[in-house]
Each structure stands twice: as structure tokens, then as C-alpha cells.
Amino acid sequence: MKSLSKYLVLACLYFSQGLPYGFFLQALPIIMRDMGASLPQIGAASLLSLPWALKFLWAPPVDRYGTKKIWILALQATAVMLFLVLGLLPRYEGFLYLMIGFLIANLVAATQDISSDGLAVLLLNRSERGVGNGLQVAGYRLGMAFGGGFILMYFTALQWKGSFLTIAAALALASIPIFFVKEPQPKDNKQRQPMLQILTGFFKRPGIWGWLLVISFYKFGDAMATVMLKPYLRDRGLSVEEFGFYLGTIGVVSGLLGALIGGWLVRFLGRYRAVIFFGIFQGLTVLTYFLFVRGMFSEDLLPYLIGLEYFSGGTSTVAIFTVMMDACRPKTGATDYTIQASLVVVSTGTANVLAGFVAQSLGYDGNFLVSAVLCFTGVALFAWRFRNYTVEQGFTLKQ
To answer: Which domains are delineated in the chain?
Structure first.
């Protein structure tokens, strides 16, 4: 299978994951408010994304039974049917069913992510993983922009039914390339490992606990900064239109470019230097938020600072995701990658919660400064712990 075909398949798969999550993240709170939901109910709706944090618990069956292609096709078909059903619900009478539907949608998308990650590990060789991860991140962000931006922009015109039909149609179209995939099978795949052994085997590998510590911190500071950027901009009196332009347009486009360019550069810089360079870049751009709050940059520079920070976030995400893929065993790639991805979700979620308390105590500037320090901490941990990192025979750590 040619590299271009692999990239197209993976971009479509991750677009499919980002689309419902973008709708859930951006559009659902507005729809819930329109349906008369209270603020506590809207806040509690974030629990519907719990499958993304817990998906490692059911990752072993994806590795043990069937092929990744069969899993993906079945899950994509389920997602399409689910959104068709949601479109049939009465807009103002189906609140409970809507919540159940989105819980199932997150469960399906999270499980599709498990199988897609496993397929990516099998399809991409080491030289393709930088670009491949860049396209995966870009595809996911594009899906989020479509589900949370485009659908929301045209929700009045599309109405309830039309919005869900559009999502279902987009998911169906994005599923077409997977039909043409010839999934490679890892060597010595005849003997199936017990599912508990698949899960626990990942943690028994040399150097893996140090690696898990690194990925816990690497995106922690960036998450703390970006979650407080939204209320900070709102408190500065930005209009809804300006808010959408800064984050929905500049932020999304910059993140996409960062992912694509970062993925291309990983191949030339090498994994070790890319993780360090992009991590430092990430920390410096977060630090510009601190300097801006302190009045060291003019107001006119704000959109450029946001674009730069989102760009750096895209590059650092691709770099760390590429090494996460190196850390996967071919036979159990879905489980191995999912464990790491779940840890990133838990870590960034914890950062989001902590950021509220830090900003409340130290102010927005204090939160951005702490965030930058934590960005550099993640880089320092990687530079120190994996200074002898190589990619020989997969994820090899010379102690």
C-alpha cells in the first residue's frame, strides 16, 4: 500500500473521530441551553466524554479478536446509524435520549480510535510515522472544526434533523477509503494472548514507566494554558464574532498547519530532537500569554500570539504522538497506544481542572506562567530520561 493511500485512510479515520467530538464540545452546550438545561446539567454533560479516558479497559479485545478493518467498518456504520436516529428525536422533547445518544457516540468514537490507532501502527513504517501522525492530528482537528464550527454556524439553516443528517453523511463518506485497505498482519499472530496479559504486558517493558511520566507532563502545561485562554478572552470583552475568529479560525488553521509541518519536520529532525525542539517552542509560546497579560505586547499582536501558540501545540502533539507509536508492539498496537492516549486524556483533563484553581489564586498571568514552567518541565524530563533514545526494533531505550 502506497504512503499516500495510507495517509488518506488515516486522515479520514481521524476526521471521523473528531467530528462527533467537536459537535459534543462546541455545539452540544448551546443546544442544551436552548432546550432549557441548567448550567449544572451542561457542566455535568462533560462526563459523557468519560469513554475517552477509560477506553484502555476494552482495548485488548480489539487486538485479540477480528481485524482492525472489521472493527472500524462496524463502528463507523454504528456511528452513522446513531446520528440518523438522533436526527429523528424531537428537538425539545428528547433531552434524556440525546444524552444517552451522545454517551453511545463517545463510546463508539473512542473504540474506533482504539482500532484506528492499532491500524496506524500496522500500516505506517518508521519513516512514515512523522507525516502520518501529522495527518492524523490534522484530520482530527478538521473533524472537530466541521462538527463544532460548520454545523454550529449553519444549525439555524440545517435545523435539528438536517444537522444530524449532515454529520451522518460526512461519517459515511469518510468511511469509504477504509474499504480499500489491505491490513497487514503482524508476524507470529497465530497464538492469541490472554487479554489481561495484553494489557499488563505493556507495563513490564524496560523504561516504560519513565516514558509514562514524560507523556503525563509533556502536554500538561499547554492544556492548563489553553483552557484558561477562553475565559481570559471573554473577560477582556471580546465579542462572540471575535472569539470565533481568534479560536475557531486562526486557532484551528494554525493547529492544522502545525500538525502538518511538524509531522514533516519529525522525519528530518529525528524523534529525540523533534520532541525537545517542539516542546521548548510550545513553552515559549505559552509564555507569550503571560507577557501579554502583563502588558508587554500590544493588543494588535493577540491574534498572532494565539496563532503561534496553536501552531506550536500542533507540532508538539505530533512529535509526542510519533514516539507514542514507536512505543507500541506490532501485535498489540491498539492496546499499547490506547493506554498512552488515555493517560494523555487524564493528564490534560487534570490540567484543565487545576488551571481553574491556579487562575483563581494567581490570576490569569500566574496561570500562564505556571503553564509555561510545566511545559519546560515535560521537555526536561524527556531530555534527561531518554537522552539515549533510539528507534531500533521499535521502542528501544538504552539504559
So the answer is: 1-183 (1.20.1250.20), 198-399 (1.20.1250.20)
